[in-house]
Amino acid sequence: MRRIGITTMVPIEVLLAAGYKVIDLNNLFITSVDYNRYIDLAERDGFPKSSCAWIKGIYGACLQHEIKEVVGVMEGDCSNTKALIEVLKLKGIRVYPFAYPHSHMLDDVKAAIANFMKIFGVDLSEVEKVRLQLNELRELAKQIDVMTYLENKGSGFENHLYQVSLSDFNGDIYSFQSEMEDKIKEIRQRASYNKKIRLAFIGVPPMTCDIYELVENYDAHFVYNEVQREFAFPRASNASNVYEQYHDYTYPYDIHFRLKELKQQIKERRIDGVIHYTQAFCYRAIEDIILKKELDIPILNIEGDKLNALDARTKLRIEAFIDMLSDRKE
Q: Which listed CATH number (3.40.50.300, 3.30.70.580, 3.40.50.11900, 3.30.420.10) goes with 124-329?
């Protein structure tokens, strides 16, 4: 089976209908035991130290694993992807562009996905067949989400992991379905957590996944992972076709569209505070200004760079933030 890498969530239904094994290069990078070697490889090839670690990691993972075809998202994700795919082309990798239209008009989204289908030689009926199959797996992720925020049984990390992995279904939809079903059975047998502080994690998925364990040590619990949940398409059952489903996907469009869903989830999940994760050198860090103005809830902004673990200063800031939330709640 031919492999194809993706730089972020794309209409994966199209790629699976075309017979590809899809690999999210972000997941390939960050789950590596020696993830730093991908960054080092990129910097040796000329990527500046002041560029995003994710971009360098994607580049390194793509070359190291000999991925020969890549879908690069040109609009609606990282602004550095345009330069990244030019370098990948230079390395002989075949790149297919995809863009989430800035207009966020349904007709424009439809045109973008229709063109994507044309590139890969599949039609709507084939794509819809795959979409319905994938949405059954996405329903399993919704169960884990409910077990996290409503039943207080799933951990924040499990909530993160099983939703973020839906960008590529870990490269095998059948084994991943079995893994999620086993996880649901395991979680169901647990007693509920009794954590005092309910947190939301918003922004790009973190490089520093130890944040989930850290907050639990301070009597807190992440009950909402914003972008990871969007990767799971929680409202897919409301969409009548693939065009509507990706039109409803909040992450690639303007922040005001994201804010509607954020406000609803903060209220529904009874969130006490928000941790907004941003990546060094990423334009999305500027969105923190808007989030703090629009969300009527305490927000702590933390920034990651190359490390896959939190530094001492950030740990202290998170501890102080949770202490403040605890005092405020009392």
A: 3.40.50.11900
